[in-house]
Amino acid sequence: MNDQINVREVRLIDQDGENVGVVTTADARERADNAGLDLVEISPTSNPPVCKILDYGRYKYELQKRQNEARKKQKTTELKEIKMRPNIDDHDYNVKMRSIRKFLGEGDKVKVTMRFRGREMAHQQIGLRLLERVRDEMSDEAKVEATPKMEGRQMIMVIAPR
Length: 162
What we know:
The protein has four helices and eight strands, in the order E-E-H-E-E-H-E-H-E-H-E-E. It has helices at residues 25-35, 56-73, 90-105, 124-137, and strands spanning 9-13, 19-24, 38-43, 50-54, 79-84, 109-115, 142-151, 154-161. The strands form two sheets. A four-stranded mixed beta sheet has the order 2-1-4-3. A four-stranded mixed beta sheet has the order 5-6-8-7, with helices on one face.
């Protein structure tokens, strides 16, 4: 900005947005001073660098406003977790499935965790069948992002909305 620009020539764009062409940096600063505005380097990597005559404070304000708008439009996907046990009852299973459908409907990923305690570790195939049942029921609404795998005493599967 202004005196911090230390190249000999710049491609100048005036306050009306018209391309003036390649001029010396001193001439560009003089034009900016005459207009009562700042000389701001817009594209420092191009050859020669592109500079524009504008109000720097207003430029920074509008840039920040654009960034805030872009941030508002972003959708962050969260990872929700549903915990189950291998010997889950039908009603409890249906309640968990309703929660999974709700989370997927909101656009979130769901981590389904099957916890094994004590002797249940000897019957991991029961937990695997239950996770496959969840996968099959949700096949039209969701895709499996991480297939069921054991991590310690837990079997974990991640599903994401289609």
